Amino acid sequence: MFTPFDTAHLTHTADRHGAADAATREANRQRRAARRAAFHAFVAQVFAQAPRHAAPVKPVTTRV
Question: Rounded to an integer, what distance in angstroms lies between the CA atom of residue 17 and that of residue 9?
Answer without folding.
Answer: 14
